[in-house]
Amino acid sequence: MTAYAALKNRLRAAPRRWLVTGGAGFIGSNILETLLSLDQTVTGLDNLSTGRLENLDQVRQRVGAERYGRFRFIKGDVCDPAAAADALTNVELVLHQAAIGSVPRSIDDPLESNASNVTGHLNLLHLASRAGVKRFVYASSSAVYGDDDAMAKTEDRIGRPLSPYAVTKYVDELYAEVIGRLTGLETIGLRYFNIFGPRQDPNGAYAAVIPTWIAAMIRGAEVKILGTGETSRDFCYVQNVVQANLTAALTDRTEAIGQVYNIGLGQRTSLNELFDILKRALTPRHPALASLQPVYGPFRQGDVLHSMADVSKAHRLLGFKPGYSIEAGLAEALDWYEANL
Q1: Residues 233-264: pLDDT tens digits?
Q2: Residue 191 · residue 260 · CB < 8 Å
Q3: From CA 264, how far away is CA 268, in angstroms rounded?
Q4: 88 and 129 in contact (C-beta within 8 Å)?
Q5: Which residue is catalytic, options 138, 165, 170, 237?
């Protein structure tokens, strides 16, 4: 039995009370689904600015009405003290996912990103420290590495931020460390790399690359690569992120508290390689893709050239071990992409 399987059994035997912010969003709804499938009691807080009620409907369909009955949804904003305080009632563990999670959107509207990502984060930290919450696990981002030129990113070295979004996530880490130190609230930050999977929105100007490209391939539309295609990322399936959140929330290692961790695969995939991976995965379902070639465009402002996670710290202190490769994640997610894109 793997350590993660043992953790799930531990949760089934002794259910806990959770708050998942951004619970109607991409990552939040996947966390929610796993927690409910383990018979946990969960509150979700989401203002539905990027989250979708359809995601909650899909969670209900997958876990069943009885388990879904353990879920309480609050439509509200993490910046609103009343909504946040209500959501924190009788909660032991917080998994804070709510954010405006887009580099270009933060460049277009830095005030909006700062309000959601910094003010909302601090509001929730402050109230959680007063509400008797035991542990506060929050989503940070690989964007904090900025212009650091190391190929494999390690948690103790960051560069200058390249976008307002990157600034907000670094400030989140600073606030979590300070509030934790001053109040005793146990905080753990997870620096997500490039996450993909079911319920990730392919639409709009700020959509992530994998659902955007899959949607284009399914529809027979143009696939556009920004730059030469040698830009690389650490693409990580969402179930690896779910594992990281649960592992961080339940670790018994005191030295793991008050830390930030890279969450990714620990491997680098160029955009050209990603195009080939997606094409191979989809061609058996859509034979016309065999002749598809990408179209290249200008590099996007605020992006970094290369990003790969060194996950050794998360492995050492949290026991995090990604269970899904890119290919395995795509194989699991393709039916959802086909049905929903």
Answers
A1: 999 999 999 999 999 999 999 999 999 999 99
A2: yes
A3: 10
A4: no
A5: 165
Q: Which whole-number Å values give the CA distances from 228 to 145, 214, 232, 305, in the listed order? A: 22, 20, 11, 10
Maximum distance among all alpha carbons in the chain?
A: 59
CB 225 within 8 A of CB 294: yes
Angle between helix 120-130 and 164-183 (nearest 10): 10
CA angle 60, 66, 68 (to 5 degrees): 35
Q: List the structure tokens of 22.
A: 């951004």
- Measured at the alpha carbon of residue 246, what is the angle toward residues 128 and 192, in degrees to the nearest 5? 85
How far is the C-alpha of 188 from the C-alpha of 195, rounded, in Å? 19
DSSP state of 306: B
pLDDT tens track for 109-168: 999 999 999 999 999 999 999 999 999 999 999 999 998 988 899 999 999 999 999 999
For the chain, report the end-to-end CA distance as a whole number of angstroms. 35
Whether 192 is catalytic: no
330/196 Cα distance (integer angstroms): 9
Burial letters for 293-331: b for 16+ Cβ neighbours within 10 Å, e otherwise?
Answer: ebeeeeeeebbbebbbbbbebbeebbbbebebebeebbe
Distance in angstroms (rounded) separating the CA atoms of residues 69 and 55: 16
Amino acid identity of residue 95, one-letter, is L
Where does the pLDDT of residue 66 fall: very low under 50, low under 70, confident under 90, or very high at 90 and above? very high
